[in-house]
Amino acid sequence: MPGVAGDLSGRTLVLGVGGLTGIAWLCGLLAALEDEGVDLRGADRVIGTSAGAMVAARVAAGRPMARDARVVAGRWSPVRAAMSALYRLAPKADSGQVQAMIEAMDHQGPSTPEWRRGRGRDALAARTMPERAFVAMVGAVVRLRRWPATPLTLVAVDAATGVVVPLDRAGGVPVVRAAAASAAVPGVYPPVHLTGRACIDGGTRASLNADLAAGARSALLIVDHIPTGGEGPLSAAAIRRDADALAASGTRVVMIQPDAASQTTLERPLDPGMLVAAGAAGRRQGREEAARVAAGWR
């Protein structure tokens, strides 16, 4: 399987699921950390899932996050306006369906291959935007022609088998399609076809897929959504369990989660109208977290 994690040293940055608002919040947060002297582009490895996959690609490529924050969440950004227009015009699940899916996860037990196969069937049967349009929307965020030199893993799930699919430059898949596969939320966006198989959002396995950072000397885990209840892949319990397991393996773990003020901008994760507010909230929290990150992620 391409991209399976091995023993690593150094520092690993892990960015998780979060929808459109999560992308904006992450970019704002990372831009603020850079402004405060904590430049995460120096990571030895970057792992991204769903929204985090798109931002992870930019970080691994060494792109300045201040510019990315303006592109994704700037009030007058033409890229943000184009993304918003495409999202509004394309067929997709309505907000009620999305909320119902999130609430269902509150009652979901731990993610299993069988459960993920069910989400894969849902994704393949759903009426969403065309795959080509979705990949183009992801491309507007990723804006890369080739994989970065810094080791980068983008996490997807095989829709047919429910098995995790870690994607990297050795797998022969274009980086934009890999990021799109990682972000293909079942029932909201179309599955993305890679080398003969349909792939869905890696967040159906875990919010962060932090276990792929095993072996790192230190890892910075950034959650960019509001954790759910229950034991499902997006739950607070699952996130804490995965972080604790990584720490127990010997990795120094630092984790950032949205604070109460940030969470108010992330309540509608697929609403492009919230991108500006989410980006600003990320910047504010990034400034407040900078000293703690600098002390722990070394």
Q: Could you tell me the strand content as a percent range?
A: 5-15%
Evaluate the radius of gyration.
17 Å
Distance from N terminus to C terminus (CA atoms, Å) equals 30 Å
Share of helix, binned:
40-55%
Give the biggest beta sheet.
8 strands, mixed
Structural class by helix and strand composition: alpha/beta
Note the overall shape.
globular
Tally of DSSP β-strands? 8
Walk me through the structure:
By secondary structure, the protein is α/β, with parallel strands linked by helices. It is built from eleven helices and eight strands. The chain has helices spanning 19-35, 51-60, 65-73, 78-89, 95-106, 113-125, 131-142, 175-182, 236-248, 260-263, 275-296; strands spanning 11-15, 45-49, 152-158, 164-167, 192-194, 197-201, 218-222, 252-256. Strands 1, 2, 3, 4, 5, 6, 7 and 8 form an eight-stranded mixed sheet that branches. Strand 1 (11-15), helix 1 and strand 2 form a beta-alpha-beta unit. Helix 2 (51-60) runs antiparallel to helix 8. Mean pLDDT is 90; it is low at 1-8.
